[in-house]
Fold these 3 entries.
Entry 1:
Amino acid sequence: MIDLESLLNPEVASIPPSGIRKFFDIAAEMKDAISLGVGEPDFVTPWHIREAGIYSLEKGHTYYTSNSGLKELREEISLYQKRRFSLSYDPEQEILVTVGGSEAIDLMIRSVVAPGDEVLIPEPSFVCYSPCTKLAGGVAVPLITKEEDDFRLTAEALRAAITDKTKLLIMPFPNNPTGAVMPRESLLEIAEVLRDTNVLVLSDEIYGELTYTGKHVSIAEIEGMRERTVVVGGFSKAFAMTGWRLGFACGPAPLLSMMRKVHQYAIMCAPTVSQYAAVEAMRHGDDDIEMMKKEYNYRRRVIVDGFRKMGLSCFEPGGAFYAFPSIKKTGMKSMEFAEKLLNEEKIAVVPGDAFGASGEGFIRCSYAYSIDNINEALERIGRFVKKYI
Amino acid sequence: MSEILSILEKGITSPEQIAVMLDMDEKAVEAEIKKYKEEKIVLGSKTLIDWEKAGINKVTAFIELKVTPQHGEGFDKIAERIYQYENVKTLWLMSGGFDIGLIIEGKTMKEVALFVAERLAPMDQILSTATHFVLRTYKDSGIVFNKKAIDERGFVTL
């Protein structure tokens, strides 16, 4: 019999499967459990956007688009980036439509990271950066962000981590799972450190629209940073379009042309129906963003207030849709807390260490749920926490 | 503050909850709500019920009226005469092909039809009526009827 194990790419085989998969499976089986574990909006895609997708199918727009994406869509993305974030990109050379923000992240890492290159990844953060780095032969270097710094990346931490091998810095803000945002003054400090280096920046701004404490600022907007930065954005979070799998990358032409090449051979083009729907989202979706953002903001305040009232320290998230309370007071590890909470009160949350070792002592609670749901969950978590602190 | 009104309209009425949602002082929210009620900006609240599903027969009709406005009174006087009836649930002055639109509820079609024939049609100012019976409610006050809210999202995702 063929020994498949021996035939696997050792790089891929060495990447551990998500350690909390088992926990997720147990959670999903549990009846009547309330989940605060989901990393996507609870809103369905606004109807006018869905309808645009349907119309595109009716009209028979069922072919590949150009590798870079529909010209119409790239032009709209260019206008959108200008309108919403004061960023200027040429739709011809500097914008690529991808299969979700995830593909754009992978493309950027694969396009610039050579074996042995170091990639600086603030932590806790979304789980894809480190495996993508490894698959590209790079070395993932975590940059621990701390609650006392509002989970922001500090200039000191960055400076201390840069070596001759540093190729790329990931900027995952607004951050999943902490909800941290980088205001302009923090970005200026980071830019100061980067300015005299050859370090490139991948700014994952998928949650950029969901910023509640001031306006989202892209690092590409800071003087001297545009030339080294690829901004990743997408439709999933801002327009509640996760299942459409559509994102984009914006950056200097030489970087984008490399990414386009990888994209062309690996993917061909993003789904056509999604691209037509996205054109509608860009043209007429700004009000939808505001409506959803307002709703998330209400929930954000309710959940943070709830955790604080039960005696847990909870950092005030400035963006995304997650609260990241500390559960250290209970004396439990994150996984233990999550398992017990699920068993005793039937509430699913994500242990903080799923987002890197520095997430230990925290849990991620999504507030992409109705207020009623959040209130019920808070009541149960409160009852649970009371037993242990 | 119009945001309080928008939240009240969603059916969230606890000042404590609203205060948290808006990052406001609870006492201030309470005072605002009190003021809105006094000024009749907040008029009341209702629960939306799918009577059909509850197995209770109710007949709803939309009635168009063409009327002659009265000198010096416009449409107000006639509107007032009509909305005093308990079974008139909603009444609007309209632009377009007719003047007054109203929604009537009754137990049977006959009851509604007789109300139009016996109460409305004979009024001097009413020139004509057209009665449209509601056959099915798909959506009312922003809420879709007969749709189960199923969360299709994965239970836990990163």
Note: Residues 4-44+288-388 of chain A form a domain with the Aspartate Aminotransferase, domain 1 fold (CATH 3.90.1150.10).
Entry 2:
Amino acid sequence: MKKIQRVNKYKALLVMMLPMVIVQILNGYLPLFGLTIAFKDVDYSKGLLGSDWIGLKNFEFMFASSDIWHIIANTIVYNLIFIVLGMAMAVALAIMLNEIRNRFMAKTYQTLLILPYFLSMVVVSYIVYAFLSPQYGFIPELFAKLGLPEIDWYSDPDLWRPLLVGIKMWSSVGYNSIIYLATLAGMDTSLFEAAMIDGASKWQQIRYITLPMLKTVMTVTLILSLGGIIKGDFGLFYQVPMNSPQLYPATDVIDTYVYRSLTQLGDIGMSSAVGFMQSVVGCILVIAANKIVKFIDSDQAIF
Amino acid sequence: MKKRIIAGVLAGVCGIMSAGCSSTKTAEETKTTEYGDLPYVELTMVYPISANTTQDQDMVTEKINEYLKEKLNCTVKLEALDTSTFYEKFPVMISSSEEFDIGWVNSSMLLQNVSRNAFVELDELLDKYAPETKELLPEITLEGVKVNNKLYSLPVYKEYGYGNSYYFRKDIVDKYDFDLSSLKTMRDFEPMLETIKANEPELTPYFVESGAMEPYIPAEEGEKYYFAVAGLPGSICFDPETEKFCNRVETEEYKNKYRILNEWNKKGYINKDAITVSASFDEIIKGNRGWFVTTSSKPGVEDSLSTSVGTEMIRGYDEKSYVMTTSLMGSMNVISTTSKNPERAMMLLNLLYTDKYLINLFNFGIEGTHYKKVDENTIALPDGVTSQNDTGYAPGIDWRLGNNYNLYLWDYEKPDKWEQYRSFSENSEAEPLLGFYVDTANIKNNIAAINNLSTSYDMPLTAGVGNADEFISEYDQKLKEAGIDTIIEETQRQYDEWKKSK
């Protein structure tokens, strides 16, 4: 009886929630059946559910090559850098944008910084190519004019580690800063006024007021982004270096490796196995990170 | 406001429902054709075409459908995909069990997917619905595409030997008086490359692009010829003398080839952007980047190539041609297990092999618009058009569908092209592995790992960058780690068994 009353009370809210729940079931839960593909020897005539179980055999191919550890390391290190550096830059950017008093300029900067996020990596790859192409690129030509030594950008992997990080930051930092900017906009300005009266410098205000206020949002973003730590940004690592084989030591991540191994083989079971593994590791990391956060400061944990 | 939204939703639902009704209605229409009473169906065909040359596809499709409606009471939905997207998209279509009826495959696509039952077995269908085609296709081609003694695909009826040839720009060859007949090894190339480098600053002496194949010409005269194995990565090859499979990267012939390319790169014969640039033959020649290209040595290629690139090309050094499993399986059409109408699909295939009007429509488009007729079997470009690519319909699918021998000839082609095709096929020697294919079920992991290595090493080696010897020994090392020996052992075992059963 109580329950019905409560349902009645929140009727409007429940109805509003319904579309999202349906979408979530259709997009998030129904496809979970597909996870079984990772353990099957797919036979189209028997259908996905009827195919034979083959245990962990689909996972074996990943470890057939000695390169895999290097590739896993690549994936994780890049993502760690993206997470840490990305967060630091996004927060810094949000604070800077927040300090701009001229509203028109603030909006202009914001728009310009977010714009790269909406460029497809394929487009980005050609922008980069226009700069670096060994035959007609802007930078090689410039180097030649200035009499600097010739660098073959598409065959030196060491150059690409910082380059990829730079490109990723350029494309994502503006977008990522929005969430921090929104938090800052909602902050109580009286705190700053009080601090100013007490003679706090700008730097001190940021350190002791702004950053602590952003802590919650930062923790949530951190925990959530850990879930993707063994997924490589395919566009960034495959398209931007023009899939140049000589750059593989620096650009090969799990996703590109799997793509190359399996496009010719076309084995759906093996590729599902990779997706399965990435999701499981991601899930474990999110739960573990949340546990740790909870242990340190239970208010900051997300669940 | 609320009422209006509801009304909108209702209208939408009605629309969807009525659309549903109308489409089921046409599906029931039955028509009497020469194949008996057939209900109307729509068939989907998936095949690759050359890029950006089929603006008029819809127009041609309409014509095709008009004809097919009459003949088979069906229409076709043509999923003609750009070559570069085809090889990525089609495997995904197959693995996601998307519905289609007829598809184009090559050897590796066939072998991979037959083991997963993606394609319909055709023996019965062929006997029943396409006896003319069965009659038409040479025994050796139908036998050659069988897997486990069962037919899953129809080979396109065309030449069936395989070899490569170089095609050079005639004006350049004449200008410097190059003697193409003396071309026997890679070393013979060198004086020509040197001349080009010294005198033609615009041209790259040895142009390489990211899709380039390795030079087929031997590094030195009298080198041993190794055969590729259908369904396996190129690093595994077959030695016909010892009848053993081996690691190709370890052979002296392989090393020599890449050492020379390496040398050429150091001498500046190869373009700097070889690894990242991709260019079609048109772009290479018209764009003044290279002065020769490599492609199949079948008869008549120089004629069609000359028109498509807009300057006269002549051939030099024909590789010995062989009838191989891979060449027989080079171009085939299959019927998908997701097809609801495999019988009709077979009838359509039969028409593609036997109906002259239809196959020419597919290939050349509409008479008067995309070509004009010169006589019964000869056609020419419409007035004022210099290249087939500019007509609005140039799919480049002559070798991908049906029966080549039913095609019209362009006025620039030799009138005896089809006779030449026949003699080319008959003069091609059968390779020792003909009819043998590997069951890859137990070595899939190793193949996946090696495919990955091929993409990492083949291209830099072909572009001649770095140090070839270091690259090759590193490649070899990695191949061993990825289990190339396991593949060789397994293949050898299957080969020995196959040999015994023969």
Note: The CA atoms of residues 377 and 408 of chain B lie 5 Å apart.
Entry 3:
Amino acid sequence: MVGLATVLGAGGGTSSYQEIEETDVILLWGSNAREAHPIFFHHLLKGIDNGATMYAVDPRRTSSAKFADVWLGLEVGSDVALANTVAREIIAADLHNKDFVAHSTRGFDRLKEAVEPYTLERGSELTGVPAEAIREMAHAYATAETAQILWTLGITEHHNAVDNVLALCNLALLTGHVGCWGSGLVPLRGQNNVQGGGDMGSLPDQLPGFQKVNDDVARAKFEAVYGVELNPNPGIHLTLMFEAMERGEMKAVYVIGENPADSEADIHHARKMLEGLDLLVVQDIFMTRTAEMADVVLPAAIGWVESNGTVTSSERRVQRVRAAVTPPGEARDDIQIIFDIAARMGHDWGTPDAEQLWDELRTLSPMHAGMSWDRLESEGGLQWPCPNMDHPGSPFLHSWLWADDLEGREPAPFSALVHQGPKEQLSEKFPLRLTTGRALDSYNTGVQSGGYNSPIRYGDALDMNPADATSMGIQDGEKVQVSSARGTVEMAVRYQPDIPEGLTFTTFHFPELVDVNVMTSDAWDKRSGTAEFKAASIRVDKLKAVAL
Amino acid sequence: MTGTMNPSEVGVSIRTVTISIDDVDVKVPEGGTVLDGCKAAGIDTPTLCYSENLTPVNVCRVCVVELEGSRTLIPSCSRPAEEGMVIHTDSGRVRHSRKMVLEFLGSGVDLSQADDMNSWSEHYGADPDRYGPAAEKINEEVKIQDDLYIRDYDKCVLCYKCVEACGDDAQHTFAISVSGRGFAARISTEFDIALPDSACVYCGNCVAVCPTNALQFKTEWDLREAANWKPEEQTVTTTVCSYCGVGCNLEMHVQDNTIVKVTSPNDHSVTNGNLCIKGRFGWQYVQPTITTR
């Protein structure tokens, strides 16, 4: 989101699901949408049925990649090198959209210079992808009438996450594949309201509607409604919070609906930091590992099925959630909990319901102003921006790029980027690459998806190419010792011919079984705060025979 | 310089064709079907193999209507409306044909939970049992191979909807198809292997389209076995799934403050009625009986 916001000024996917059904070329980059976003993948498959060509860029030949015309199995963490190579090939073959580049972008000369070293040959060396496949994807993307680039955590869970996103933005700006129907840049969001959370200002430097806390005019508007003075200094994101805990500067933490004691990379360190706090408050629907460490636990109602409100999807569609069941025991609506805490602190905020809070938001966030509760009900949700009651909502963003006057905005900037690769290099001691991801039937740390018995669940196994496994004398299903520089776990090996030699993969859904994040890297991107879950270096050893 | 506009913003006027249905002129959008025309005219039409989120397979023939000038009756669900068509939906031929179709399809089948089909049978005076003992039920044990859904072959009318729902309309999993011929025809996984070993990914989209409850969510089946399935006491609340950020609408069917089934609206632009295993089955953590809450 930081990358998209830098280039285009809005941290949201540019396109709607209907557009992928009508687009000509699809670059699915670092996303296994077939398993992580299955119903979006239905729309994508309709696009393929309608004649679209799909290129899948992923170190693994995933179930999504199997639907692609071409699979580009790049080395983990070589995304910038691949994107730069594609950009260079588009320019070298004179396939870039010169009118668009001249009118709607800036910094083309810098980009051209920066990508010059990334010839097809060099790109192929850095990424491990055959030069011909890179060339084909570059030409198909550049010459398509409409084309989309889609990505998920394969792009953003790297230490250079923002660079990765900027590299993909470069390609859209070179070709003009953004700001019009059918084309776009689409980060698929992993959680049902991660888009909405950001839109509502749950980001360290923002107020609702992407208004900045250090913008005096925006802040004054909120202060007038809230009746208090707001702090003009941006806060810090989660990764920096852990550093502040380490320095002893952050002593109290109030966690709502997160399980950092299971989900953070380099988990031992994260748990130590949480244990060292003076005060830890957890508001959650489960007694999570983090909650077990807390001084105070506030049991919450489940947002999507025990309370009323809205969530916002990957296509920026704001939709109503509604209470279908009443919460158990003492669990209460998050709104009630927060308002009661405010009351104990001496602030009477009254007892507004979800719709009244939403209406207050509409007066403060212009992009939500036209979304009345009634319209959200009757129109199946609305896509922001929707600035007034007569506005139909926005299927795609950034049509300003195609306006003669750019609607008064600055042209969108290209970014000059350098291939860095993963922070953690392979070594003699840790010769295998480990990457992580989701499985179809499970979700994140498994606190929700663990509640049902899936017939297709196999647990956290370490997927290895059979050639790698047999060279070490490891059988399919054999339990082995897996180590990184940070820790060691025992887990079963699963033969998986769809991943290349030298690469291993595991899901992270079963921390009770296998503490995968003990091994993942704590390198992270300073700009977005995302950690490098996708690239660690590990070794695999057979367990020592135990004498019976 | 212009980019491509969203078609909905260009204001393209939708062309229509006019057809006569039971002596009333009806406008149908170009590309629409005779069934669309019947719906627009407020005429209730029986369907079994048709669903608005599936491509018609034309196997049940229960939606047939009479088209003047056509030797045979035509299936309304798949026949595109053409300018000037004259349609009769309640002629003697149509009523007779629908009655026979309902009897053939229902013969030898347990229709105890096929509410729609039973009400159409009543409407057309169809008696699926009149073919006698030769058409006895196959009396096969219900297949229960996991905790998510069951297959009761005694209830299957071979409408093919589950096959379509698994295939290239949306899901593209192709785990099931029709095997065998004639009386031996049945829906099957490859070589009739157990579901967990098949290509099935447990999206439950087949269960969602089944018109006779031959495919049934395990939660519903358990409650029916315990004589505790009470649809009249259930509420249905639409909300949004908690897994991933696609924004699928879920209809939560709730009985006694307990979720008993999840569906999705066919007419919602995000799901078109389809869900994945997490959305369809992943809600069990919500129930107060789970010890972790």
Note: The CA atoms of residues 176 and 190 of chain B lie 7 Å apart.
